[in-house]
């Protein structure tokens, strides 16, 4: 059993004792804390939007959340099976006070979570999250009397509204996509992507769409994180040569990955790079990604005359940096595209519309488009330390040891070398330092990572 309470929400494995797993008591406590915190914001609306992905526990958790909120006097707009970005859009569209998405994103079926939104349909801030955690810890909430109870309204039209929203976006060119007559294979990992992605593709004008794992049962056919090692069925089918590209989404449809026509991975890091390249071809501007994302975004941005900025890891941090730098496109290297013309949240549906337009206009095969971008490889490692070691002191020592290079310390330590980078981040729950390194070859990336790991071991021994 596992239960993780953080400033961004509550996440855990279903079952177990309260406080040890995501039990109904924990769900109710956190939903009550959110509803109480939201009430103290004095928003004029008395409505909260609620949606969920298709995982097995979703209906149970959603029901607990909805009934807790109406017990606090809130009206709940339940949009049912949905996606994270759809709920994010629905909040401002309906002028609601906030929103909750019941999803554990790419985690396995045993997990579920509550993702919490403010009245802008964006993830709550660090300060708001801390206030909410305190309310939950103290159980500082009071439920409504019988004549002040809220009510639940159901509306399943928002996925269709989201699709129309994508069609209406600037620079999504349906005519170009229709002309390309794309044959597309989709892996929807048995969640809500199986409902919405095929409908979007048909609305965009794809000539033919096949779906594997499209039934939204929540019984994920493979590990739901959209990494190449989890996509063996998709890759095998792509090698048949019957498709122009493959599209993969995670259970809540905020991450987007592609497979080339020959079955090779396009690379999730390059989803954002490609979409940014297209957006920047329409308008010169700034871009943002987190510190652990590929340098290729910086290269593409600067080649188009824009400026690239890095943010701490975490969607809310990327969004804050995008707003500060007035970025026209940004996101995360895990296949997360954030397009402010739509909204400040990762959105696979928006990413699909922009990506397919770019691919259609390029006249290239998807593998040829991928080959047109700078080639980088990221090596992901971690080093376990003794519990008595001061991890912050180790990170400070590394930053000083490499001060001749460009060092960024807004989130751990990132060292930019002329031909690559290394990013070190400590775990918040265990004595581990995660070490990501990038270079133009896997060998060089591994060398960078090993160099830093050796330096950490020397510091730890001293």
How would you describe this structure to a colleague?
- The chain contains 15 helices and 20 strands.
- The chain is of the alpha/beta class and about 450 residues long.
- The strands form 4 sheets. The chain has a 7-stranded mixed beta sheet, sandwiched between helices.
- The longest helix is centred in the C-terminal third of the chain and has 20 residues.
- It is globular.
- The mean pLDDT is about 95.
Order of adjacent strands in the largest pleated sheet: 1-2-6-5-3-4-7
Structural class: alpha/beta
The count of strands amounts to 20
Report the uncertain regions: none
What share of residues is helical? 25-40%
Average pLDDT reading: 96
Q: How far apart lie the N and C ends?
A: 37 Å
Instruction: Report the biggest beta sheet as strand number plus sense, adding barrel if it closes.
Output: 7 strands, mixed
Radius of gyration (Å): 22 Å
Total count of helical runs of at least 4 residues: 15
**What would the principal axes of the Cα set say about the shape?**
globular
Task: Indicate the proportion of strand residues.
Answer: 15-25%
